[in-house]
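Ops channel
N.P.: pipeline sanity check, posting one input/output pair.
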């Protein structure tokens, strides 16, 4: 075996936004800039002016066009085939950008990355970037569910065409966007001009800081109320009179549907209960649960547990170690339609360990009592990883058990992270506890690094 681990997963960025927001302009800037990235593009030509293909060819990018309709409607067919086609040219690129049509919902596109084992082994979602037309977004949010979902799913929002709107209006627009998505970073731009480093670093946006900001914004809303609450859905005030903005409120339904539920709670969590709670969440809210992200404190675990979900798909993995001087707060944000915030909060509270259980040194994160995992066992798994993937001896490899929440999967699985120098962490998953892992389980990761039922 060589000391190289082979090609890492290609990062995938979904570029979305409503009709005319400036997506194609931003994509052309990315393709012609000198940033050192090798980019492949999957693009629709339905409903919008297409990309200048001479520009793409001169930029020597791998380009796949989908001309037979909206990506979100053909996702299980054409987009899957597009990824398979890109896979055959994997050595030519390290980043894939998917430009959706202006009327596409991002969720089915993101879910495609979880839909096939081969795709999951070769591609990883870095984030969703939504371009917003500052001049027209207020009306679009009132009239279009797609515009709302594009913002709700975003990890980064490019508030474009800011030169066409006064500063006071921009502040109001950002507040309106914040009611749909309190976690995403917002960057203002003119003619889609912004630091491209922000685009390529979308995965590394400080989740902890963003969740804290979301919770602060949520608390601010609770303290001051929402001026929309003064009117019912028919545009009448609480006394039954129709105000001069009555017509505006009659159309304003999509914003009301999308809500954000924020939880910040100290305490330690029972991982087995947590697994069951997440399964309940997914089963109850289903596709209405647009996005979820969080940082959790598991019982007797020195590391943070990070999770994110896209509707019915969920991914959890170990994070950094908790610092000795920091409060181990659980931070969660859920974005979706018609979410029951009280039920979510009560369900989460049931996952917290009782004081006696939390203080017990006999219980592992899953409440199994004293479970000893020998260093020799961990070293054996690390040796198998190096043997199969060619990781250098000095490459740190983290092996630990984490909760799994997919209904057909076991509640305990093992996460493996290889911390290769100058690369993003390489993630692997084995759907069994550490004590049950065999060489064959590790060998199977070559074909499928992130198996799922």
């Amino acid at each position: 075996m060589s000391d190289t681990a082979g090609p890492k997963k290609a990062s995938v960025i979904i570029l979305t936004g409503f009709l005319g927001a400036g997506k194609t302009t931003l994509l052309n800037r990315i393709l012609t800039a000198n940033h050192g990235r090798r980019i492949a593009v999957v693009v629709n030509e339905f409903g919008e002016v297409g990309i200048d293909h001479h520009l793409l060819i001169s930029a020597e990018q791998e380009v796949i066009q989908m001309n037979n309709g909206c990506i979100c409607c053909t996702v299980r067919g054409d987009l899957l085939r597009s990824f398979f086609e890109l896979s055959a040219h994997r050595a030519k690129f390290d980043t894939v950008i998917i430009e959706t049509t202006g009327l596409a919902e991002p969720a089915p596109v993101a879910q495609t990355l979880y839909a096939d084992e081969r795709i999951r082994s070769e591609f990883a979602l870095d984030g969703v970037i939504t371009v917003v037309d500052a001049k027209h977004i207020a009306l679009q949010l009132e009239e279009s569910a797609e515009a709302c979902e594009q913002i709700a799913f975003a990890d980064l929002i490019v508030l474009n065409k800011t030169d066409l709107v006064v500063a006071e209006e921009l502040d109001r627009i950002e507040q309106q966007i914040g009611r749909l998505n309190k976690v995403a970073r917002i960057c203002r731009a003119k003619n889609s001009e912004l630091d491209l480093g922000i685009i390529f670093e979308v995965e590394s946006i400080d989740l902890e800081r963003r969740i804290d900001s979301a919770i602060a914004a949520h608390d601010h809303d609770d303290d001051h109320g929402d001026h929309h609450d003064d009117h019912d859905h028919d545009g009448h005030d609480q006394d039954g009179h129709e105000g001069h903005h009555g017509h505006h409120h009659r159309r304003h339904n999509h914003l009301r549907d999308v809500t954000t539920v924020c939880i910040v709670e100290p305490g330690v969590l029972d991982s087995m209960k947590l697994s069951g709670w997440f399964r309940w969440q997914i089963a109850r809210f289903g596709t209405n649960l647009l996005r979820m992200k969080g940082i959790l404190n598991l019982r007797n675990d020195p590391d943070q547990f990070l999770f994110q979900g896209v509707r019915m798909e969920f991914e959890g993995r170990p994070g950094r170690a908790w610092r000795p001087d920091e409060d181990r707060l659980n931070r969660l944000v859920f974005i979706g339609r018609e979410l029951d915030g009280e039920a979510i909060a009560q369900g989460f509270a049931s996952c917290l360990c009782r004081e006696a259980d939390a203080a017990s040194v006999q219980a592992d994160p899953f409440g199994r009592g004293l479970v000893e995992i020998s260093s020799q066992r961990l070293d054996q798994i690390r040796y198998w990883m190096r043997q199969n993937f060619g990781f250098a001896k000095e490459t740190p490899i983290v092996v630990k058990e984490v909760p799994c929440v997919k209904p057909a999967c076991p509640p305990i699985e093992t996460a493996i992270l290889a911390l290769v120098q100058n690369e993003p962490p390489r993630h692997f998953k084995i759907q069994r506890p550490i004590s049950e892992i065999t060489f064959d389980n590790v060998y199977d990761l070559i074909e499928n690094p992130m198996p799922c039922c």
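N.P.: looks fine end to end. Residues 375-444 form one domain.
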